[in-house]
Structure formats: C-alpha cells, structure tokens
Amino acid sequence: MADMFRGVDKTIDRHHFSFLIKQMLEEFEHYVMFADIFKKLVGRKIDVDTDPVQLPEEKKLQARQGYVISGSAIDKAAVLFAEGGGAAMFREGAKVTGGDLEQMIARAMKIIYDDEKDHFREGARESAERVRHAEDAAQMKAAICDVSRQRVSMRLEMFRSKLTEADADAFIARLQSSASVSMAAAH
User: Which of 44, 143, 155, 182 lies 20 to 30 Å from 3, alpha-carbon distance?
Assistant: First the structure.
C-alpha cells in the first residue's frame, strides 16, 4: 500500500486507493475480533507463528492473488466482484445465541457481514468501467468462475461437508444449464 500511495492520482485512482485502504482496515478488524474470540476460547493470546492453520483449499484460494497481481484491470475487477460472495455465512453466524462466547461470535459475524455484503458493488462498478468488449467479458467471467469455484472447495473442506467436489460440480453445471435455458427463452 505504501508503494501504491506514490501513484495516487497518477496511475492509481484515488477513490480506488481509498477503497483498498478501507478494505485492509476492515480485514484487520476482522482478525482482531477473531483473535479476541480465540483468546476467550483457549484462555491465551493467539501465537501468530504457531496457531494459525490454513487448510489446503484455502491456500489454493490464494491463487486469486495471481489475478490481482496479473497487471490486468479486468482480472483485478473480477476478484473484487467475487469478494463478499460468502457473506451469507456471516449473516447466519450473526444469529448465534448463547453465552459470552456465542455473543462475541455473533457480534463479529454481524460486523463482518455488514462489511462484506456490499463489496460486490465496488467490484460491479470496477467491472462496468473495465469491460468494453466481448473478450473482456469472457476474461472476467472466467476469472470470477475460477475464484468462486475455489471458494466452494474451500467451504466444503472448511465445514467438512459430506458433499464431494463432484457433487459441487454437478450442482454448478445444473445452475449453468438452467441459466442458459432461461437466457435462451428470454430471447
């Protein structure tokens, strides 16, 4: 971010830079809330060197960084558009009830939901500015599908779902088929 600052109003739009700073602050605040929950749960501060565990599918999701650093404004906008796609998890988590720990979790989930639910709007604005041709739209669609599909794999692993990757692929194929039929009927 510090390196990007030198480019504000030169090569980097000030509004976009402001959005990125706010997004970074939100993400850090999310970490702080969950680190506090961790402390409440285990009775000590988190050890950032030994406690965090990143599941293999979550590590693969870091592939979205490839889109972010690709130099392609379309790929960057696609990743931004895909942000907040998992907001329903936080919306539902905000409904948790119970004791102090559950209240902490519900409060964190509510704050994260409120922060995340509209990220796609910024992505949509960026996307609308970047997509000029059918090739641009195809590139964006491919990036959104890639990142979103990886998120599905991450959630399957994270929640130890009984759904398999094949189940997820079949479900997505049915949705795509249904959408294609609906679009064809509209024309």
Answer: 143
Residue 90 CB neighbour total at 10 angstroms: 20
Q: Which are the contacts of 61, defined by CB distance < 8 A and separation ≥ 6?
A: 147, 150, 151, 154
Closest CA to 75 of 17, 10, 149, 126: 126
Looking at the DSSP bridge assignments, the partners of residue 8 are 12
pTM above 0.70, yes or no: no
Residues written for the chain: 187
What tens digit of pLDDT does each residue of 112-148 get?
Answer: 999 888 777 878 888 888 899 999 999 998 988 888 8
Torsion of CA 157, 159, 163, 167, to 10 degrees: -60
CB 105 within 8 A of CB 96: yes
Q: What's the distance, CA 147 to chain centroid? A: 9
